[in-house]
């Protein structure tokens, strides 16, 4: 059974690809303080499950912590074991989605075509992650959205930043995954805090139509 994406003031997912466990608490802390309510640590990061576990213990109940680049049902089980509640994948794997639903996780599978998007929606995905969004563009996502079930949450990931929120929002995108525009390996917590504030300010302006 699918799990709905929880209501969020700002449905923004911070993608911390490459983060190390020893820096996780400081960087996750400034993201939460800035107002980010979903944080993804991709499994191709160093010791990712340790980092996810640290983040999950630190985060308040209203902040989603989880993994990205989840490719197997075994990874879903490990994610659940460390307290992860958000599953993000680059593809649509019905076995992975079914296992995540068994664990009560919010799911964001990656889609690019109408076929993939409809399969993900039919498989109970909480949100559809259009990736790489920069290739489809806002107009491409809007065209595919026209054939999707009403109410499906649409997220854009890949080449999305505080510079182009407004374009995607006009096309019906309601959520965003933010990677290198927010965090790159080697950045300090102070660097991330500055970028998070700029990101949230830009999102709020775009939503307000400014």
Written overview of the protein:
This protein has 210 residues and is of the alpha/beta class. It has a single domain, classed as TIM Barrel. Helix content is 43%, strand content 18%. It has 8 helices and 8 strands. It has helices spanning 21-34, 48-58, 73-81, 94-102, 114-122, 133-145, 165-170, 189-208, and strands spanning 12-15, 38-42, 64-68, 86-89, 106-111, 127-130, 153-157, 175-178. Strands 1-2-3-4-5-6-7-8 form an 8-stranded parallel β-barrel, surrounded by 4 helices. Helix 3 links the parallel strand 3 (64-68) and strand 4 (86-89). The mean pLDDT is 94.
How do the helices and strands line up, and which of them pair or pack?
Elements lengths: L11 E4 L5 H14 L3 E5 L5 H11 L5 E5 L4 H9 L4 E4 L4 H9 L3 E6 L2 H9 L4 E4 L2 H13 L7 E5 L7 H6 L4 E4 L10 H20 L2
